[in-house]
Amino acid sequence: MKGIIVRTLIIALGIWVADKLVPGVYVGSGVSLVFAAIALGLVNALIRPLIVLLTLPFTLVTLGLFLLVVNAAMLQLADWFVSGFSVDGFFSAVFGSIVISLVSWAASSFVGPQGRYEVMVRRERL
User: Fold this and answer.
1) Could you give the residue ranges of the DSSP H alpha helices within the chain?
2) Which pLDDT value is given to residue 18?
3) Which of 41, 48, 64, 70 is the most exposed place for a label (fewest CB within 10 A)?
4) Tens digit of pLDDT for each residue in 58-81?
5) pLDDT tens for each residue of 95-118
């Protein structure tokens, strides 16, 4: 349970950064931000695997670049579910999904599978 909450907060951080950096991505309030993070997490968990499977030929032909379109579509789908969160246009969705992915990747590198912070210490013997 703790892991789900931490991952949702990481997605919310990514959406907040996208709101600040990408023109066309807007979050109205903190409540909208949390609901947008929950909606994006659910969309990515339930719908995205099916879409990735169905578009696998396009993804292979474009050497994986079509996944940017899939991620943008998932962000716009989350926009459709949440009032107070909007993504204006395709390119805003693409750049917003890139920013959210980068922030989520960077923040997730500090979090383990159970939602705990992980620090790796290396000791050398002399």
Assistant:
1) 2-21, 30-46, 48-54, 56-61, 66-81, 90-108
2) 93
3) 64
4) 999 999 999 999 999 999 999 999
5) 999 999 999 888 888 776 666 666
Which residues contact residue 78 at a Cβ distance below 8 angstroms, ignoring those fewer than 6 apart? Answer: 36, 39, 40, 43, 85
Residue 126 pLDDT exceeds 90:
no
Whole-number Å distance between alpha carbons of 5 and 54:
30
Query: Token pair 């990514």 is at which residue?
Result: 14
Tokens of 126: 């002399």
DSSP 3-state of 109: coil
Residue 97 is classified by DSSP as H
Residue at token pair 């997490």 = 41
Measured CA to CA, the distance from residue 24 to residue 12 in angstroms comes to 17
